[in-house]
Design brief:
The structure is a single chain. The strands form 6 sheets. The chain has a 6-stranded mixed β-sheet, with helices on both faces. Helix 7 packs across helix 8 and helix 9 runs antiparallel to helix 10. It is 34% helix and 23% strand. It contains 10 helices and 19 strands. It is elongated and about 70 Å long. It is of the alpha+beta class. It has 2 domains: 131 residues, Creatine Amidinohydrolase, Chain A, domain 1 (3-Layer(aba) Sandwich); 213 residues, Alpha-Beta Complex (Creatine Amidinohydrolase). Bound molecules: manganese (II) ion (MN). The site of manganese (II) ion has 5 residues, from loops.
Amino acid sequence: MAYNSRIEKIRKEANDASAFLVFNHEHSGQPATRYLSGFSGSESVLVITGGENFIFTDGRYFSQTKEECPDFTLVPLGKSTFFEDLNKIFEKFGIGKAAVDPLRTDYASVSKFKEKIKDVSVMSLENVLQKIRMVKDENELKLIEKSVSIATSSFEELLPHIKEGVMEKELARKLEFLMIENGAKKIAFDTTVASGENGAKPHARASDKKIKKGELVTFDFGCFYRGYASDVTRTVAIGEIPSKLSEIYETVKMSQEAGLKAAKAGISGAEIDKICRDCISEKGYGDYFLHGTGHGLGMEVHELPYVSAANKEPLPENSVITIEPGIYIEGIGGVRIEDTIVLKKDGNANLSGKLFKR
Ligand SMILES: [Mn+2]
């Protein structure tokens, strides 16, 4: 079972502590909770010990927990009895030190813990699960591929509707509807539909503006499928476009293709970023590439590893990243093209495939 090997990994990383805790309040501890246990609900506490593993949750989730987490012992989560119940587990298993991820655990939970449980110290393991989650297993790769294919095939269905006179937000709602109809659980983030000058804002939301002839329109969209995200960006031209716009489109396309060509396991995020950025700088648009080249993708839309100048670490095999250079010029417009790829030893598999240009 995948969960067993994930639990083994976290136990190894949390070696200096005798338990690893994940507090999940109103989804705050997702996706760590789901990754380790399968639990998809909004309220829980996981206790990973050297032997038995526990999940605290409330009555809304009892039967769901039995289905989703057969390997975990369910403990009813009572607000007034929680720390007593937790302490019983610590005593039973002789736990003196418990680890948490400080980036994903709220300060209030840790403070309360320290106040209520004096005999167990809390150790902080920054980003511990996010690092484990960088390398995807076969099943995760299949789910990401499916999530990406729902997004790209929905966009193909949207293509005939992208024309002069249609409002940006009509297209956004239609694309979101198509993704749900094609099997997505929910959309992964606010869909961007940015036409004309709006394209100069990398994360513009879809507005009331109507699409006009001679404009570029950028679509950034994605969905969740069985806990895994997709994130795709396409820029399309409406009829004939001015030569300046086609120049920036061709520049971004060239940069993105150079990134796709270079990406493989072992190269660093910084190296890919430099390759993409150099292509854009050579054409004189370096100052208009306003963000990093890409990011990891999985149970979160943005996760490790980052494809940016700051990440000098080699990217691991079977990590999933996006390559998404862009150019944004105020008063003129913008272009971004984003694909999702799986890194392999000698190259990569492009999950979002072909580029669209009309
Ligand atoms: Mn992205």
